[in-house]
Write a structure and sequence with these properties.
The complex is a heterotrimer of chains A (627), B (164) and C (263). Chain A is of the alpha+beta class and 627 residues long. Chain A contains 15 helices and 17 strands. A seven-stranded mixed β-sheet of chain A has the order 3-5-1-12-9-10-11. A five-stranded mixed β-sheet of chain A has the order 7-15-14-13-8. Chain A has a three-stranded antiparallel β-sheet with strand order 4-2-6. The longest helix of chain A has 18 residues. Chain B folds into two domains: 77 residues, Beta-grasp domain (Ubiquitin-like (UB roll)), CATH 3.10.20.30; 69 residues, [2Fe-2S]-binding domain (DNA polymerase, domain 1, Orthogonal Bundle). Chain B is globular and about 50 Å long. Chain C is α+β, with helices and mostly antiparallel strands and 263 residues long. Helix content of chain C is 30%, strand content 22%. Chain C has a five-stranded antiparallel β-sheet with strand order 4-5-8-6-7. A four-stranded antiparallel β-sheet of chain C has the order 9-10-11-12, with helices on both faces. Chains in contact: A-B, A-C, B-C. Chains A and B meet through helix 2 of A and helix 2 and helix 3 of B.
Chain lengths: 627, 164, 263
């Protein structure tokens, strides 16, 4: 298997490809429950003695917590327990630590600082929701209000306030080398010089709330045998379970999560906040505890799709051919990283959109600000940049006078074309999509445009070859804050060149934070990819240039599948012309994870039998034990 | 805490219970009477997930002070089907894929029922107006509107058959 | 801690109103505050008997404070109010929300109060005292007691015009709303222009009213009205729009109202 294939190949023995459903009316398997009101959502589980938990939230964008006084709240009627940061066993996490991505940067309950309006500083558990609300107002927090920053480009300035000390440059650090995710393909500046037109514009997208009709919530209760049951509307049950286990320092075997039915999610229910909160409440009170956001919390404290700002500069020939495209992008991640830096990796793989453009450069910043943290929402990482790209295509059509649909067909990628992230495009269909859309809309296109096909004309030697690429090393971590670099756009002049045909090494994930989280092939009941398939470099030497066909790009999520030697941290990307640099030192997390590391981790006598082991099945990992 | 006795008819069943001062009807129906079919989406009158009928009139349970329903009749989706037979609205919603996550469906069905009780042959605009207080984030509303029109037609045909 | 008090008559209920004591009308605003535990609500007062009938009376049409938006829509007497009531909430809200409650609704709610201000309505308090809508609205936050009814003049459809500007259709709250009573079939005579969400509460645009008095309803004739459109108003920034945007678009909507009749 040379690259990731399509589902129909992966699951060839599970489907007969009759496709009787598409275009036919069908009855959802869960709809009888919906129309009779019998579908059981998380809140449709009744418990005797249920307690209600509510959060005390920051009214400020950015403030130091000088003191927290809960004594008045404790005396309020019906209050069973006031919960603060001291009650959280492991009060620092990042969502993607479960896949070894990023540093722990987010306290589950703020204790030294609040970094966004709506951040949790304490919780109240009371007999009724109303009593909990009344007691929330009695918690006294002495805040020292700090200056805040709400705009990503303001946050990049040298004198900007530091929002989150774990990321002191207000940016996610990519590959321990740059303060942004860099993409270079060919030589955009040479192409700009040769182009007939330069088209530049900026696009801004607002944060968007997922706004499911059912707000985020969970009910947790003690079960027999020291376990806690948790009914939740999470979109990511095992993700929530793993996060709960980490924050509460519990083996996951003590957590019994029940979910799968959610009243809408759209990405807004992956952040795994309500589940550990409810379980913590059940642990501290020994009673069933319900923690549910109201609509105001869903809007203010619930993570939205983040705001993005995009600047696009295109070099265009008179006939509409785009010869170069340059991106400068700013993701507003809010106060904590959650999923944003990962979305950018996805985004940069998508750049420059579904077009064949021989010279592409991009600098994309994941910026920390004092806004509500951003998270997943339908196609996040792609949606905003696609909005910008398609608006920009219309601008190019205006500048060149080329019909906007024909402009897209002219520049569309085709099967076999090399994309900027150095993978060959397959199953492309933009041309056909444009033709059908034009037909449906009654939009006339030329006979030549109508005759084009994604299946032909692509993958010719000039369209599949990876060009010689100009590189630069601007924007190294810390340079911006030190005032050594101010420009955010890709460099005007390169400092290095990479020979044509170079694929580069796959990027590895961040080092694991806890040896127990290291994935070991022998502990997983999957057929693992062989060493020949694993794109992780096994030695510090840069990978040699690879001829086409390219190897599969490895998202960080699956990078650990290569199982590098355990003590060795994953390698920085090490472009060939870069001088060898020691990785930047990670700041110490504020409260380190528990250091309980047995000499030898548990190892089963034989591999677990669960999981897919069919011949020819996907080597995808579906999860690992955490403890 | 003072608790107030309350009696009402819930889908043909006499119901008697005690409610907290200031309790709203959605909480009393769900946690007091155990009818989990109406949903709470916002508790501020925006989403319509808690829509019920009180004495045949469309109301939002989250904005109804529970004690004001003393002696009145409340209808929810749990009582919409006649025994094992689905109401035509329920059947039309199923056939028309008019629900995805299902969380707005209870409220949508009650709003649609209130419409069809008074207007057996509604126009498309009347259907849109009738569900204008009910938010759906999944379907984009079109299948819901279609399903309500479909149900109206089924009910008219059913009525004619019964008359023959 | 919240307590609920029940009274048989409006007069008794009115006597119970006071600091941190709120009257429950349709519940669409008060119950939301109760559900969210907003501070400042210690007691909720209910009244078993609230007048909700709509009938012809001396000086116009008398509408009981308990009349719901659905009641207004069901009444032929107040057909000129139908365009206003129809745009308030969805059907369930219209079955609950009352005229009396609307008089106390804070921005962005209270479309009907704006209309009644433009129509020079009279407020009848529990106990019988009458007061003009304008002075009532100006003092409503400090007022004790309850409203029993409103008397609104009978207006023909052509001389009353109303526009509600929303972000969401068909149910959104008003980014702004405008009610115009031209008073007369030809040139306006002592007309009224009232705005919602162009200030802290419903406000009359008195400079624009003066400019409209006797003006011909054409592009040229209304130019001075539009120029004075926002004089005396005090739009604010909020979630729905900025003050700047409101000032920019208010003349546009007023122009459409004056030239086009209903929107």
């Amino acid at each position: 298997m040379t690259s990731v294939e399509f589902r129909k190949d992966l699951f060839a023995d599970e489907r007969d490809d009759t496709l009787k459903e598409i275009g036919q009316p069908t009855i959802r398997q869960d709809i009888l429950g919906h129309v009779t009101g019998r579908t059981a959502y998380y809140d449709d589980h009744l418990f005797d003695g249920l307690l209600h938990m509510r959060a005390v939230r920051s009214p400020h964008h950015h403030a130091r917590i000088r003191a927290l006084d809960t004594s008045a709240a404790e005396r309020m009627p019906g209050v069973r327990r006031v919960v603060t940061a001291r009650d959280v066993p492991v009060n620092l996490n990042t969502l993607l630590s479960l896949i070894n991505f990023g540093r722990d940067d987010e306290p589950f309950c703020a204790h030294d600082k609040v970094r966004f309006k709506g951040e949790t500083v304490a919780w109240i558990i009371a007999d009724t929701e109303r009593q909990a609300r009344d007691a929330v107002r009695e918690v006294r927090v002495d805040y020292e209000v700090l200056p805040h920053v709400l705009d990503p480009e303001e946050a990049l300035k040298p004198d900007a306030v530091v929002v989150n000390e774990v990321y002191p440059n207000n940016t996610f650090d990519y590959h321990e080398l740059y303060d942004h995710q860099k993409m270079r393909y060919g030589d955009v500046n040479a192409a700009f010089a040769a182009a007939d037109h330069i088209v530049e514009a900026e696009y801004q997208m607002s944060p968007i709330e997922q706004a499911p009709i059912e707000t985020c919530g969970a009910i947790a209760a003690p079960e027999q045998n020291g376990r806690y049951v948790c009914h939740t509307n999470t979109q990511a049950l095992f993700f929530s379970l793993g996060t709960t286990a980490k924050l509460l320092d519990l083996p996951s075997s003590r957590l019994h999560f029940i979910g799968g039915t959610s009243g809408g999610g759209f990405g807004g229910k992956v952040d795994s906040i309500v589940e550990p909160t409810a379980v913590l409440g059940a642990m501290l009170t020994g009673r069933p505890v319900r923690f549910a956001w109201d609509r105001e919390e869903e809007m203010q404290a619930g993570a939205p799709r983040g705001a993005e700002r995009w600047r696009i500069k295109d070099g265009v020939m008179r006939d509409g051919t785009i010869v170069a495209r340059e991106f400068t992008g700013f993701f507003d991640s809010g106060a904590y990283m959650r999923l944003s830096p990962y979305a950018i990796v996805k985004c940069v793989g998508h750049i420059p959109g579904p077009y064949h453009i021989p010279n592409v450069a991009a600098n994309v910043y994941c910026v920390v600000t004092n806004r509500t943290p951003a998270t997943a929402m339908r196609g996040f990482g792609i949606t905003a940049v696609d909005f910008a790209i398609e608006c920009h295509m219309d601008r190019i059509a205006e500048v060149t006078g080329v019909d906007p649909v024909e402009l897209r067909i002219l520049n569309a990628y085709r099967d076999g074309d090399m994309k900027a992230h150095r993978r060959v495009a397959k199953n492309t269909a933009l041309i056909e999509c444009c033709q059908v859309a034009a037909g449906k809309a009654g939009w006339p296109i030329s006979a030549e445009a109508a005759a084009q096909s994604s299946l032909t004309g692509g993958g010719t030697p000039d369209r599949v070859a990876i060009p010689e690429t100009v590189t630069d090393s601007e924007g190294r971590i810390g340079d911006r804050r030190a005032g050594r670099v101010t420009e955010t756009a890709p460099a005007k002049t390169g400092t290095g060149r990479v020979a044509a045909g170079t694929h580069f090494a796959a990027v590895g994930g961040a080092p694991v934070q806890n040896p127990d989280m290291q994935i070991e092939a022998e502990r997983i009941g999957h057929a693992m990819g062989s060493a020949a398939q694993a794109p992780m470099p096994q030695s510090p030497q840069p990978a040699p240039p690879q001829p086409a066909p390219p190897r599969p790009a490895m998202p960080p999520a699956s990078a650990p599948a290569a199982a590098p030697p355990r003590p060795q941290p994953p390698q920085p990307p090490a472009p060939q012309t870069q001088p060898s640099q020691p990785p930047a030192q990670q700041p110490q997390p504020q409260s380190p994870p528990p250091a309980a590391t047995p000499d030898r981790p548990y190892a089963p006598d034989k591999p677990f039998s669960r999981g897919t082991r069919r011949p020819g099945s996907s080597p995808f990992l579906s999860g690992t034990r955490r403890r | 805490m003072a608790r107030t006795p309350l009696t009402f008819t819930l889908n043909d069943a006499e119901t008697a219970l005690f409610v907290d001062e200031g309790a709203n009807l959605i909480d009393v129906l769900r946690r007091g009477a155990g009818d989990l079919s109406p949903k709470q989406g916002c508790a501020q009158g925006n989403c319509g997930a808690c829509t019920v009928l009180i004495d045949g009139e469309l109301r939002l349970a989250c904005l109804t002070l529970a004690e004001t329903v003393e002696g009145r009749r409340i209808d929810t989706v749990a009582g919409l089907a006649g025994g094992p037979d689905l109401h035509p609205l329920q059947a039309a919603f199923m056939d028309g894929f008019a629900a995805q996550c299902g969380f707005c469906t209870s409220g949508m069905l009650m709003a649609a029922r209130a419409l069809l009780d008074r207007t057996p042959d509604p126009s498309r605009d009347e259907v849109i107006e009738a569900i204008s207080g009910n938010l759906c984030r999944c379907t984009g509303y079109e299948p819901i509107v279609d399903a309500i029109l479909d149900a109206a037609q089924r009910m008219r045909q059913g009525g004619r058959r019964a008359a023959q | 801690m919240l307590t609920v008090e029940r009274y048989d008559t409006m007069a008794e209920a009115a006597g119970a109103i006071g600091e941190r004591v709120h009257y429950l009308a349709g519940g669409t605003l008060l119950m939301r505050a109760v559900n969210y535990g907003y501070p400042g609500i210690d007691r909720v007062v209910r009244c078993r008997e609230v007048p909700r009938e709509i009938r012809t009376d001396t000086g116009g049409i008398r509408i009981g404070a308990g009349a719901t938006m659905a009641d207004l829509l069901a009444s032929r007497e107040v057909e000129f109010l139908h365009p206003v009531a129809r745009l308030i909430g969805g059907p369930a809200i219209r079955n609950m929300a009352t005229l009396g409650g609307n008089l106390f609704a804070r921005s962005p709610y209270g479309d009907l109060a704006v209309t009644l201000l433009a129509l020079d309505a009279q407020v009848i308090r529990a106990g019988g005292a009458a007061e003009p809508m304008e002075s009532f609205l100006a003092a409503r936050d400090r007022a004790r007691g309850l409203v029993e009814a409103v008397i609104v003049p009978r207006v023909s459809a052509g001389e009353f015009r109303y526009a509600k500007v929303t972000r969401i259709k068909p149910k959104g709250v008003a980014m702004m709303c405008a009610a115009v009573w031209l008073r007369g079939a030809g040139r306006p005579s002592d007309p009224r222009i009232a705005w919602g969400n162009m200030g802290a509460g419903p406000l009359r645009a008195k400079a624009a009213e003066r400019a409209l008095n006797g003006a011909s309803l054409d592009e040229h004739g209304i130019a001075p009205v539009l120029a004075a459109c926002c004089d005396g108003l005090d739009p604010q920034d909020d979630e729905l729009a900025t003050a700047w945007y409101r000032r920019e678009v208010a003349p546009v909507h007023l122009k459409r109202l004056l030239l086009g009749g209903r929107r």
